[in-house]
């Protein structure tokens, strides 16, 4: 059982890495530290769903690093994205990372 779990994790790791590498070849890097909510919303409108998912996972990882949370909460990720988008619509000049911290991910 444990061996199968390791194989599944390795498979998805390779798949994710190859997908991320392909994505990185066609996209500009994102500097989150000076990104405003307005720029974030504008960028999301120009992204496909997969790319937007990568951005949201990055933000989740960033917040997890701050709070030392080592668990990826799939259910909370969509709710976090919705709340962050709503917050950013109302506060377009706020910094994205500060906005993400303000909204947080509720578990």
Strand tally is: 0
Q: Which consecutive residue ranges, at least 5 long each, have pLDDT under 50?
A: 7-15
Class inferred from helices and paired strands = mainly alpha
Percent strand equals: under 5%
Give the helix proportion (percent range): over 70%
Taking the sheet with the most strands, its summary is:
none
What Rg do the Cα atoms give?
A: 15 Å
Question: Would you kindly provide a written description of the structure presented here, covering whatever features stand out?
Answer:
The protein is an all-alpha fold and 107 residues long. The chain has helices at residues 2-26, 37-45, 49-67, 74-90, 96-103. Helix 2 (37-45) packs across helix 4. It is globular. The two termini are 28 Å apart.
Short overview:
With 107 residues, the protein is an all-alpha fold.
Outline the fold blueprint.
Layout: H1 2-26, H2 37-45, H3 49-67, H4 74-90, H5 96-103
Helix pairs in contact: 2-4, 4-5
Keywords summarizing the entry:
mainly alpha, 73% helix, globular
């Amino acid at each position: 059982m444990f061996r199968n779990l390791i194989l599944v994790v390795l498979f998805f790791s390779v798949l994710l890495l190859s997908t991320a590498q392909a994505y990185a070849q066609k996209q500009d890097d994102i500097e989150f530290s000076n990104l405003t909510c307005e720029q974030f919303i504008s960028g999301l409108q120009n992204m496909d769903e997969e790319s937007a998912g990568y951005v949201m996972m990055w933000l989740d990882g960033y917040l997890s690093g701050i709070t030392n949370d080592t668990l990826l909460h799939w259910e909370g990720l969509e709710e976090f994205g919705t709340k962050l988008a709503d917050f950013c619509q109302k506060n377009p000049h706020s910094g994205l990372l500060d906005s993400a911290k303000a909204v947080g991910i509720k578990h």
